[in-house]
Amino acid sequence: MEVGPTTHYAMGGVRVDGDTQMSCVPGLFAAGECAAGLHGANRLGGNSLSDLLVFGKRAGEYASAFAKEHEHGTVDEAYVASLQRESLAPIDRGGGGDGENAYIVQKDLQDTMQDLVGIVRNSDDLQLALERIAALRARARAVVAPGNREYNPGWHTALDLHNLLAVSEAVTLAAQLRKESRGAHTRTDYPEKDAAFGKVNSVIRRADDGSLQVRHEQLVPLRDELSQVIEEVG
Amino acid sequence: MARRDFKVWRGKDESAGFQNYSTDVTEGMVVLDCVHQIQAESAPDLAARWNCKAGKCGSCSAEINGMPRLMCMTRMSDLPEDGPVTIEPMRAFPLIADLVSDVSWNYRVKERIAPFKPRKPDAPDGTWRMQQEDIDRVQEFRKCIECFLCQDVCHVLRDHHKHDEFIGPRFLVYAAALEMHPLDTADRIGSLKEEQGIGYCNITKCCTKVCPENITITDNAIIPLKERVADRFYDPIARLLRLFKKK
Predict the structure, then answer these.
(1) Quick check: is A164 in a domain?
(2) Which of A90, A149, A220, B76 gets the most CB atoms within 10 Å of its CB?
(3) Which pLDDT band, with edges at 50, 70 and 90, does B34 fall under?
(4) Residue A104 and residue A149 share a domain
């Protein structure tokens, strides 16, 4: 029997306000695993249940309040049409059948992340991963999905690729810039905890040119009794 | 590793039928792994429903070599190697496409069953007292993952299409869990007999045989419900007593 490490939870996520759970996109709320929340550098079994009970309730309440206070936004029809074209592109390209297979691109991305951005990381591997992700992104633009829109897993995989690539790149960039070892993030080139990194979150944003930008943002200092608990637990 | 052949149901209308595929099978693979591999290698638009890959979500129900089973819990090593493995959608429900059938009839049936109605709390703090054996009795029914394989195999639905008159083994289990619940006060016996067609079940036990959670559907759920129906409607002494009561 093969035994290996696997990903069972993403510890980063959509950046939201701690009270309202609203992201920097007005009216977009996130709670649970998709949101960056309490668990920082680690996540213990059972945490997600309490997380989504508390923050799911908050997100629901604030979303309801937000909806009551705000009018419907206007929809940019041209933008919707461009997204539609983009989404259907793999099917439109798929007629001939010659083109990149979305499943193979996904598999290659998984292999890249497993080999280079796993539990134990180093600068060279992470740099190589960024190069491979860029190459995979070019391949993802050429995937084809034979068939039609109904229940077509090949098409769904083609659509998923864009998100998989974005998340993979964000994880790799954040790992590259966090030059320390902490929680589930272990760097062989920086094996120790660094107190300065203990005070920052990595915030990743897509810039106007489409690139992902990472900045380290200061954490709100913990209340004394809480930081004492963390000191005690280590 | 060995190359294995598969006959997979494709399509949704008159032209639907089996198509041949083959893929490499390694040790430990289940049928769902093979379906995913076939999707990745040769049939990217092959529709199949799945989610947990651990036999707990009840999504990947199909008919494998003619037997209703979960694709994720059917090991390739348990299937005969001398011929292709056939994979078809559940036949008791309308086909959507390929391996996906429309199971929404089940959701509508569930809404017709009287919901849980607890008696008043019997302790001052608003809680109830129950006997452990009364609780143990219904635990088995709560293991149901709603894969609907029991519905698929039931000849009353599958062959006789009594979907309008019979709720099927899954919902007899559901009704039994409620009827036997030590706190419940609702009465489902009349509707089980009339609208829900419990009499159609002739206890062939096919449902018990295919249940991936090994719920003893026929013996522990359906037969006790049939007994309750018989007690109420067919017990000659009780009928006699009712006759006198009416006067």
Answers:
(1) yes
(2) A90
(3) very high
(4) yes
Q: Which two tokens stand for residue A169?
A: 């790149």
Give residue-wise pLDDT tens across range A43-95: 776 777 888 899 999 999 999 999 999 998 899 999 999 999 999 999 988 76
Percentage, residues of chain A above pLDDT 90: 67
What amino acid occupies position A8?
H
**Do A67 and A173 reside in the same domain of the chain?**
no
Identify whether residues A144 and A66 lie together within a single domain: no
Q: A157 and A86 in one domain?
A: yes
Q: Are strands B17-25 and B2-10 parallel, antiparallel or unpaired?
A: antiparallel
A130 touches chain B (CB under 8 A): no
Q: Report, in this order, helix, strand and coil percent for chain B, each rounded to 5.
A: 40, 15, 45
Cβ–Cβ pairs < 8 A, chains A and B: 39
Q: How much is the ipTM here?
A: 0.77
Query: CATH for B104-237?
Result: 1.10.1060.10
Q: Which among A103, A145, A153 has the least Cβ separation from residue B47?
A: A153
Say if residues B36 and B21 touch (Cβ distance below 8 Å): no
* Residue range of the domain that includes A14: 9-73
The model's pLDDT over A85-123, given as tens digits with 9 standing for 90+, comes to 999 999 988 765 578 899 999 999 999 999 999 989 999
How confident is the model at residue A72, as a pLDDT?
Answer: 87
For a pLDDT cut of 70, what percent of chain B falls above it? 99
Question: B45, A146: Cβ pair inside 8 Å?
Answer: yes
Name the segment(s) of chain B with CATH classification 3.10.20.30: 2-101
B37 CA: distance to closest CA in chain A (Å)? 9
Residue appearing with tokens 């379906």: B35
Smallest Cα distance from B231 to chain A, Å: 45
Quick check: is A3 in a domain?
no
- Both A142 and A166 in one domain: the answer is yes
Put simply, whether B40 touches A (Cβ < 8 Å) is: yes
For residue A203 the two structure tokens come to 């915030």
| Token pair listed for B20 | 């041949």
User: For B100, which of A102, A107, A151 is closest by C-beta distance?
Assistant: A151
Contacts of A104 in chain B (CB under 8 A): 40
The amino acid present at B201, given as its one-letter code, is: C
Distance to chain B for A144, nearest Cα, Å: 10
In terms of CATH, what superfamily is B2-101? Answer: Beta-grasp domain (3.10.20.30)
pLDDT at A158 over 90: yes
To probe the interface with B, which of A2, A6, A151 has the most B CB atoms within 10 Å?
A: A151
How large is the greatest C-alpha to C-alpha distance in chain A, in angstroms?
Answer: 65
**pTM across the whole model:** 0.85
Whole-number Å distance between alpha carbons of B239 and A7: 64
Locus of tokens 């009794």: A225
* Chain A touched by B27 (CB under 8 Å): no
Q: What are phi and psi of B238, to 5 degrees?
A: -60, -35
Structural domains of chain A, count: 2
Residues A156 and A221 in one domain: yes
Q: Decide if pLDDT at B247 tops 90.
A: no
Q: Per the CB < 8 Å rule, is B44 touching A145? A: yes
CB contact under 8 A, B45 and A1: no
